[in-house]
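User: hey, got a sec? need EKC/KEOPS complex subunit BUD32 folded
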Amino acid sequence: MIDPEDRFFSEGQGYFGPRDNPITETHCNVWDWDQLRMVKVKGTAKLFPPEEDIEISVFAQFADLLSPEVRAITVNNDGLLTGVSTDPEEDDTIFIGYLPFSAVESLADSPTIQYSKLQEIDRLGPGVDLLSYEDESGNPHKVAFKFNPLGKPLRLHMAWNELNLLKSLPPHPNLIPFDRVVLEDVESRVIGFTTKYIPGGTLANPKVPFRFEWLQQLTELVNFLNLELGIMHQDIAPRNLLLDPDTQKIILFDFDWAAHGKNRLMNNRDDVTGVVFTLYEIITNDTHFTSIPHWDRTINMVQDISEWACNRELDSDVSKFRSFLNEWVATRKSDRDMERYLNAPSQLTWPSLPEPPDYSVPFEHGTDEHGQTNWVTGMRERCTALEKGQYCFRWERSPQRRLLKPTEKDSKQV
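Assistant: Yep! Here you go:
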Protein backbone atom coordinates (compact mmCIF):
# COMPACT_ATOMS: atom_id res chain seq x y z
CA MET A 1 0.00 0.00 0.00
CA ILE A 2 1.20 3.52 -0.78
CA ASP A 3 2.70 5.27 2.24
CA PRO A 4 0.12 7.82 3.46
CA GLU A 5 2.84 10.49 3.47
CA ASP A 6 3.43 9.92 -0.26
CA ARG A 7 -0.19 9.53 -1.37
CA PHE A 8 -1.10 13.18 -2.09
CA PHE A 9 0.61 16.23 -3.49
CA SER A 10 -0.68 19.73 -4.14
CA GLU A 11 -0.32 21.75 -7.31
CA GLY A 12 -0.34 24.89 -5.14
CA GLN A 13 -2.91 27.54 -4.45
CA GLY A 14 -4.67 29.76 -7.00
CA TYR A 15 -6.10 33.04 -5.67
CA PHE A 16 -8.88 35.04 -7.31
CA GLY A 17 -8.00 38.24 -5.48
CA PRO A 18 -5.48 39.45 -2.85
CA ARG A 19 -3.81 36.60 -0.99
CA ASP A 20 -3.93 38.52 2.28
CA ASN A 21 -7.70 38.94 2.08
CA PRO A 22 -9.23 36.07 4.06
CA ILE A 23 -12.37 35.95 1.90
CA THR A 24 -10.50 35.66 -1.43
CA GLU A 25 -11.73 32.64 -3.36
CA THR A 26 -8.98 30.01 -3.52
CA HIS A 27 -8.64 26.88 -5.67
CA CYS A 28 -6.15 24.08 -4.98
CA ASN A 29 -5.62 21.01 -7.16
CA VAL A 30 -4.68 17.89 -5.19
CA TRP A 31 -3.36 14.76 -6.89
CA ASP A 32 -4.12 11.36 -5.36
CA TRP A 33 -1.59 8.63 -6.24
CA ASP A 34 -3.89 5.96 -4.86
CA GLN A 35 -6.90 6.77 -7.06
CA LEU A 36 -4.79 8.31 -9.84
CA ARG A 37 -6.90 11.42 -10.19
CA MET A 38 -6.85 15.12 -9.41
CA VAL A 39 -9.60 16.94 -7.53
CA LYS A 40 -9.99 20.69 -7.17
CA VAL A 41 -10.45 21.85 -3.57
CA LYS A 42 -12.24 25.21 -3.36
CA GLY A 43 -12.32 27.48 -0.33
CA THR A 44 -10.93 30.82 0.86
CA ALA A 45 -7.51 32.30 1.52
CA LYS A 46 -8.25 32.10 5.24
CA LEU A 47 -8.17 28.30 5.11
CA PHE A 48 -5.54 28.00 2.35
CA PRO A 49 -2.60 30.34 3.03
CA PRO A 50 0.17 30.37 0.40
CA GLU A 51 2.57 27.40 0.24
CA GLU A 52 1.28 25.60 3.34
CA ASP A 53 -0.51 22.78 1.47
CA ILE A 54 -3.39 22.70 3.96
CA GLU A 55 -5.52 21.40 1.10
CA ILE A 56 -3.85 17.98 1.34
CA SER A 57 -5.07 17.27 4.87
CA VAL A 58 -8.48 18.74 4.01
CA PHE A 59 -8.92 16.60 0.91
CA ALA A 60 -7.56 13.47 2.60
CA GLN A 61 -10.61 13.41 4.90
CA PHE A 62 -12.94 12.85 1.95
CA ALA A 63 -10.74 11.23 -0.70
CA ASP A 64 -11.97 7.66 -0.25
CA LEU A 65 -15.63 8.68 -0.02
CA LEU A 66 -16.00 10.75 -3.18
CA SER A 67 -17.50 9.16 -6.27
CA PRO A 68 -15.24 8.83 -9.33
CA GLU A 69 -17.26 11.51 -11.15
CA VAL A 70 -16.44 14.26 -8.64
CA ARG A 71 -14.09 16.86 -10.15
CA ALA A 72 -14.20 19.53 -7.41
CA ILE A 73 -15.23 19.96 -3.79
CA THR A 74 -16.00 23.10 -1.80
CA VAL A 75 -15.16 23.44 1.89
CA ASN A 76 -15.87 26.09 4.51
CA ASN A 77 -13.27 27.81 6.67
CA ASP A 78 -13.35 24.87 9.10
CA GLY A 79 -12.43 22.47 6.30
CA LEU A 80 -15.89 20.88 6.27
CA LEU A 81 -17.43 19.76 3.01
CA THR A 82 -20.18 22.06 1.71
CA GLY A 83 -20.48 20.98 -1.92
CA VAL A 84 -19.26 18.74 -4.72
CA SER A 85 -19.17 19.19 -8.50
CA THR A 86 -19.07 16.68 -11.34
CA ASP A 87 -18.73 19.39 -13.99
CA PRO A 88 -15.99 18.30 -16.45
CA GLU A 89 -14.97 21.96 -16.83
CA GLU A 90 -13.70 21.84 -13.22
CA ASP A 91 -11.15 19.20 -14.21
CA ASP A 92 -7.67 20.72 -14.68
CA THR A 93 -5.99 17.37 -15.38
CA ILE A 94 -3.49 17.69 -18.24
CA PHE A 95 -4.13 15.44 -21.24
CA ILE A 96 -1.30 13.07 -22.17
CA GLY A 97 -0.97 12.02 -25.80
CA TYR A 98 0.54 8.61 -25.15
CA LEU A 99 2.49 7.42 -28.17
CA PRO A 100 1.11 4.63 -30.37
CA PHE A 101 3.41 1.61 -30.10
CA SER A 102 3.49 1.29 -33.88
CA ALA A 103 5.04 4.77 -34.13
CA VAL A 104 7.85 4.22 -31.60
CA GLU A 105 10.74 2.67 -33.53
CA SER A 106 13.08 2.52 -30.53
CA LEU A 107 10.72 0.03 -28.85
CA ALA A 108 9.81 -2.00 -31.92
CA ASP A 109 11.58 -5.17 -30.80
CA SER A 110 10.31 -5.02 -27.19
CA PRO A 111 7.91 -7.60 -25.78
CA THR A 112 4.53 -6.08 -24.92
CA ILE A 113 1.47 -6.79 -22.82
CA GLN A 114 -2.02 -5.28 -22.79
CA TYR A 115 -2.96 -3.37 -19.64
CA SER A 116 -6.12 -5.45 -19.18
CA LYS A 117 -4.05 -8.62 -18.77
CA LEU A 118 -2.30 -7.28 -15.67
CA GLN A 119 -3.84 -8.16 -12.31
CA GLU A 120 -3.28 -5.82 -9.37
CA ILE A 121 -1.68 -7.24 -6.25
CA ASP A 122 -0.55 -4.09 -4.45
CA ARG A 123 0.25 -0.41 -4.92
CA LEU A 124 3.89 0.00 -3.97
CA GLY A 125 4.33 3.76 -4.30
CA PRO A 126 3.62 6.77 -6.52
CA GLY A 127 3.49 5.45 -10.08
CA VAL A 128 4.55 1.90 -9.17
CA ASP A 129 2.19 -1.10 -8.77
CA LEU A 130 2.81 -4.76 -8.03
CA LEU A 131 1.02 -6.87 -10.64
CA SER A 132 0.84 -10.38 -12.03
CA TYR A 133 0.10 -11.91 -15.42
CA GLU A 134 0.36 -15.15 -17.35
CA ASP A 135 2.58 -15.20 -20.42
CA GLU A 136 1.76 -16.79 -23.76
CA SER A 137 2.67 -20.23 -22.39
CA GLY A 138 0.57 -19.83 -19.26
CA ASN A 139 3.53 -19.22 -16.97
CA PRO A 140 2.81 -16.82 -14.07
CA HIS A 141 4.91 -13.68 -13.59
CA LYS A 142 5.01 -11.16 -10.79
CA VAL A 143 6.18 -7.72 -11.94
CA ALA A 144 6.54 -4.11 -10.92
CA PHE A 145 4.57 -1.82 -13.24
CA LYS A 146 5.93 1.71 -13.59
CA PHE A 147 3.82 4.39 -15.22
CA ASN A 148 3.40 8.14 -15.51
CA PRO A 149 -0.15 9.56 -15.35
CA LEU A 150 0.96 13.20 -15.01
CA GLY A 151 1.16 15.53 -18.00
CA LYS A 152 4.13 17.52 -16.74
CA PRO A 153 6.82 17.91 -19.43
CA LEU A 154 9.66 16.88 -17.12
CA ARG A 155 7.85 13.72 -16.02
CA LEU A 156 7.00 12.83 -19.62
CA HIS A 157 10.66 13.07 -20.63
CA MET A 158 11.81 11.15 -17.54
CA ALA A 159 9.36 8.32 -18.27
CA TRP A 160 10.46 8.15 -21.92
CA ASN A 161 14.15 8.06 -21.04
CA GLU A 162 13.79 5.44 -18.31
CA LEU A 163 11.77 3.12 -20.55
CA ASN A 164 14.27 3.35 -23.41
CA LEU A 165 17.26 3.05 -21.09
CA LEU A 166 16.02 -0.05 -19.27
CA LYS A 167 14.99 -1.68 -22.53
CA SER A 168 18.55 -1.06 -23.85
CA LEU A 169 20.57 -2.19 -20.82
CA PRO A 170 22.47 -5.46 -21.28
CA PRO A 171 21.71 -8.24 -18.77
CA HIS A 172 23.62 -7.70 -15.54
CA PRO A 173 23.34 -9.44 -12.14
CA ASN A 174 23.04 -6.10 -10.33
CA LEU A 175 20.54 -4.37 -12.62
CA ILE A 176 16.77 -4.64 -12.52
CA PRO A 177 15.67 -6.88 -15.43
CA PHE A 178 13.36 -5.22 -17.97
CA ASP A 179 10.18 -7.18 -18.69
CA ARG A 180 7.61 -5.69 -21.10
CA VAL A 181 6.17 -2.52 -22.57
CA VAL A 182 2.59 -2.00 -21.36
CA LEU A 183 -0.01 -0.94 -23.93
CA GLU A 184 -3.53 0.33 -23.27
CA ASP A 185 -6.20 -1.81 -24.90
CA VAL A 186 -8.06 0.58 -27.22
CA GLU A 187 -5.31 2.04 -29.42
CA SER A 188 -2.18 0.19 -28.22
CA ARG A 189 -0.52 3.31 -26.87
CA VAL A 190 2.54 3.02 -24.62
CA ILE A 191 1.52 3.77 -21.03
CA GLY A 192 4.38 2.24 -19.05
CA PHE A 193 6.59 -0.80 -18.58
CA THR A 194 7.14 -3.74 -16.27
CA THR A 195 10.27 -5.07 -14.63
CA LYS A 196 10.92 -8.25 -12.70
CA TYR A 197 9.65 -7.96 -9.13
CA ILE A 198 12.39 -8.37 -6.50
CA PRO A 199 10.72 -9.09 -3.12
CA GLY A 200 13.71 -8.58 -0.82
CA GLY A 201 13.10 -4.95 0.11
CA THR A 202 15.62 -2.13 -0.10
CA LEU A 203 18.71 -1.18 1.84
CA ALA A 204 16.80 1.78 3.27
CA ASN A 205 15.71 -0.71 5.93
CA PRO A 206 18.25 -0.27 8.77
CA LYS A 207 17.53 -3.81 10.03
CA VAL A 208 19.09 -5.36 6.93
CA PRO A 209 22.72 -6.37 7.70
CA PHE A 210 25.15 -4.97 5.13
CA ARG A 211 27.92 -7.00 3.53
CA PHE A 212 31.28 -5.79 2.29
CA GLU A 213 30.74 -7.66 -0.99
CA TRP A 214 27.70 -5.46 -1.68
CA LEU A 215 29.89 -2.35 -1.62
CA GLN A 216 32.20 -4.09 -4.08
CA GLN A 217 29.24 -4.98 -6.31
CA LEU A 218 27.98 -1.38 -6.21
CA THR A 219 31.32 0.18 -7.17
CA GLU A 220 31.84 -2.34 -9.96
CA LEU A 221 28.33 -1.67 -11.25
CA VAL A 222 28.85 2.10 -11.20
CA ASN A 223 32.10 1.68 -13.12
CA PHE A 224 30.26 -0.44 -15.69
CA LEU A 225 27.39 2.04 -16.11
CA ASN A 226 29.58 5.15 -16.20
CA LEU A 227 32.69 4.00 -18.03
CA GLU A 228 31.35 1.27 -20.33
CA LEU A 229 27.80 2.41 -21.16
CA GLY A 230 28.04 6.17 -20.62
CA ILE A 231 25.10 6.07 -18.18
CA MET A 232 24.95 8.16 -14.99
CA HIS A 233 22.19 6.93 -12.65
CA GLN A 234 22.18 10.21 -10.66
CA ASP A 235 19.98 8.87 -7.87
CA ILE A 236 22.00 6.18 -6.13
CA ALA A 237 20.60 5.85 -2.62
CA PRO A 238 19.68 3.05 -0.19
CA ARG A 239 16.01 3.30 -1.24
CA ASN A 240 17.02 2.43 -4.83
CA LEU A 241 19.06 -0.65 -3.93
CA LEU A 242 17.11 -3.89 -3.65
CA LEU A 243 18.31 -7.11 -2.08
CA ASP A 244 17.58 -10.13 -4.25
CA PRO A 245 16.76 -13.00 -1.86
CA ASP A 246 17.47 -15.60 -4.56
CA THR A 247 20.97 -14.44 -5.51
CA GLN A 248 21.87 -12.47 -2.37
CA LYS A 249 23.05 -9.67 -4.64
CA ILE A 250 22.08 -6.01 -4.61
CA ILE A 251 19.95 -4.72 -7.49
CA LEU A 252 19.97 -1.10 -8.66
CA PHE A 253 16.67 0.25 -9.98
CA ASP A 254 14.75 3.51 -10.54
CA PHE A 255 16.54 5.10 -13.50
CA ASP A 256 14.15 8.00 -14.06
CA TRP A 257 16.83 10.61 -13.22
CA ALA A 258 19.52 8.91 -15.30
CA ALA A 259 21.67 10.72 -17.87
CA HIS A 260 23.21 9.27 -21.01
CA GLY A 261 26.28 11.16 -22.09
CA LYS A 262 25.65 14.88 -21.70
CA ASN A 263 21.91 14.40 -22.07
CA ARG A 264 20.25 15.34 -18.72
CA LEU A 265 23.62 15.37 -16.91
CA MET A 266 23.41 17.36 -13.66
CA ASN A 267 26.10 19.06 -11.61
CA ASN A 268 27.05 17.45 -8.26
CA ARG A 269 24.83 14.44 -8.92
CA ASP A 270 27.50 12.05 -10.19
CA ASP A 271 27.37 8.42 -9.15
CA VAL A 272 30.68 8.41 -7.28
CA THR A 273 29.30 11.06 -4.92
CA GLY A 274 26.08 9.06 -4.75
CA VAL A 275 27.93 5.93 -3.62
CA VAL A 276 29.78 7.85 -0.89
CA PHE A 277 26.60 9.33 0.58
CA THR A 278 24.83 5.98 0.20
CA LEU A 279 27.47 4.05 2.15
CA TYR A 280 27.53 6.72 4.83
CA GLU A 281 23.75 6.53 5.24
CA ILE A 282 23.75 2.72 5.28
CA ILE A 283 26.43 2.48 7.98
CA THR A 284 25.34 5.38 10.20
CA ASN A 285 21.58 5.49 9.53
CA ASP A 286 22.04 9.28 9.38
CA THR A 287 19.65 10.57 6.70
CA HIS A 288 19.96 14.31 7.24
CA PHE A 289 22.17 14.78 4.15
CA THR A 290 19.24 13.69 1.96
CA SER A 291 17.51 16.97 2.82
CA ILE A 292 20.39 18.98 1.31
CA PRO A 293 19.88 19.77 -2.40
CA HIS A 294 22.34 17.86 -4.58
CA TRP A 295 23.85 21.10 -5.90
CA ASP A 296 24.83 22.04 -2.33
CA ARG A 297 26.30 18.66 -1.39
CA THR A 298 29.98 17.84 -1.70
CA ILE A 299 31.66 14.51 -1.20
CA ASN A 300 33.88 15.95 1.56
CA MET A 301 30.85 16.50 3.78
CA VAL A 302 30.97 12.84 4.74
CA GLN A 303 34.46 11.76 3.72
CA ASP A 304 35.98 14.33 6.10
CA ILE A 305 34.02 12.97 9.07
CA SER A 306 36.74 11.21 11.06
CA GLU A 307 34.52 8.51 12.53
CA TRP A 308 31.29 7.14 11.09
CA ALA A 309 29.07 5.99 13.95
CA CYS A 310 28.02 2.45 13.09
CA ASN A 311 24.28 1.93 13.52
CA ARG A 312 23.85 -1.16 11.34
CA GLU A 313 25.04 -4.72 11.49
CA LEU A 314 28.09 -5.14 9.20
CA ASP A 315 30.12 -8.20 8.26
CA SER A 316 33.38 -6.23 8.49
CA ASP A 317 34.78 -3.34 10.47
CA VAL A 318 33.79 0.16 9.35
CA SER A 319 37.45 0.89 8.60
CA LYS A 320 37.48 -1.82 5.92
CA PHE A 321 34.48 -0.26 4.17
CA ARG A 322 35.95 3.22 4.35
CA SER A 323 39.39 2.19 3.18
CA PHE A 324 37.97 0.42 0.13
CA LEU A 325 35.67 3.36 -0.59
CA ASN A 326 38.47 5.92 -0.36
CA GLU A 327 40.69 3.93 -2.73
CA TRP A 328 37.87 3.60 -5.24
CA VAL A 329 37.00 7.29 -5.05
CA ALA A 330 40.64 8.17 -5.67
CA THR A 331 40.62 6.12 -8.88
CA ARG A 332 37.42 7.77 -10.10
CA LYS A 333 37.83 11.38 -8.99
CA SER A 334 40.55 12.15 -11.49
CA ASP A 335 40.85 14.80 -14.15
CA ARG A 336 40.03 12.28 -16.88
CA ASP A 337 36.97 10.70 -15.24
CA MET A 338 34.41 12.85 -17.07
CA GLU A 339 36.27 12.33 -20.34
CA ARG A 340 36.13 8.57 -19.82
CA TYR A 341 32.41 8.78 -19.09
CA LEU A 342 31.64 10.88 -22.18
CA ASN A 343 33.71 8.54 -24.37
CA ALA A 344 32.44 5.25 -22.97
CA PRO A 345 33.08 2.49 -25.55
CA SER A 346 29.53 1.00 -25.49
CA GLN A 347 27.41 4.13 -25.13
CA LEU A 348 23.65 3.65 -25.11
CA THR A 349 21.61 6.05 -27.20
CA TRP A 350 17.96 6.48 -28.14
CA PRO A 351 15.89 9.23 -29.79
CA SER A 352 14.38 12.16 -27.93
CA LEU A 353 10.74 12.02 -26.92
CA PRO A 354 8.66 12.54 -30.10
CA GLU A 355 5.86 15.09 -30.20
CA PRO A 356 2.59 13.12 -29.95
CA PRO A 357 0.38 13.58 -33.03
CA ASP A 358 -2.50 14.41 -30.66
CA TYR A 359 -0.89 17.77 -29.84
CA SER A 360 -1.15 18.96 -33.45
CA VAL A 361 -4.96 19.16 -33.17
CA PRO A 362 -5.87 22.88 -32.80
CA PHE A 363 -8.15 24.09 -30.01
CA GLU A 364 -9.64 27.39 -28.89
CA HIS A 365 -7.56 29.30 -26.34
CA GLY A 366 -9.06 32.68 -25.46
CA THR A 367 -9.37 35.60 -27.85
CA ASP A 368 -7.00 38.16 -29.37
CA GLU A 369 -7.15 41.94 -29.06
CA HIS A 370 -9.80 42.05 -31.76
CA GLY A 371 -12.04 39.55 -30.01
CA GLN A 372 -11.22 36.78 -32.47
CA THR A 373 -10.72 33.23 -31.23
CA ASN A 374 -7.11 32.15 -30.71
CA TRP A 375 -6.46 28.72 -32.21
CA VAL A 376 -3.39 26.99 -30.76
CA THR A 377 -1.77 23.55 -30.73
CA GLY A 378 0.32 21.71 -28.17
CA MET A 379 -0.49 20.39 -24.72
CA ARG A 380 -3.99 20.91 -23.42
CA GLU A 381 -6.25 20.00 -20.50
CA ARG A 382 -8.07 16.70 -20.62
CA CYS A 383 -11.49 18.35 -20.78
CA THR A 384 -10.35 20.24 -23.90
CA ALA A 385 -9.10 17.04 -25.54
CA LEU A 386 -12.40 15.31 -24.80
CA GLU A 387 -14.32 18.21 -26.32
CA LYS A 388 -12.26 17.75 -29.48
CA GLY A 389 -13.11 14.06 -29.58
CA GLN A 390 -9.57 12.94 -28.81
CA TYR A 391 -8.96 9.57 -27.20
CA CYS A 392 -8.01 9.89 -23.53
CA PHE A 393 -6.70 6.97 -21.55
CA ARG A 394 -8.21 7.17 -18.04
CA TRP A 395 -6.18 6.08 -15.02
CA GLU A 396 -8.85 6.62 -12.33
CA ARG A 397 -9.42 3.67 -10.01
CA SER A 398 -11.08 2.87 -6.67
CA PRO A 399 -9.23 3.52 -3.40
CA GLN A 400 -7.12 0.54 -2.40
CA ARG A 401 -8.53 0.67 1.13
CA ARG A 402 -12.00 0.07 -0.26
CA LEU A 403 -10.76 -2.85 -2.36
CA LEU A 404 -8.98 -4.48 0.57
CA LYS A 405 -11.52 -3.91 3.33
CA PRO A 406 -14.97 -3.10 1.97
CA THR A 407 -17.29 -1.74 4.65
CA GLU A 408 -20.76 -0.29 4.74
CA LYS A 409 -19.24 3.17 5.28
CA ASP A 410 -16.96 2.80 2.26
CA SER A 411 -19.91 1.87 0.04
CA LYS A 412 -21.55 5.23 0.62
CA GLN A 413 -20.13 7.70 -1.88
CA VAL A 414 -20.61 11.42 -1.56
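Quick note: The first strand starts at residue 8 and ends at 15. Let me know if you need anything else on EKC/KEOPS complex subunit BUD32.
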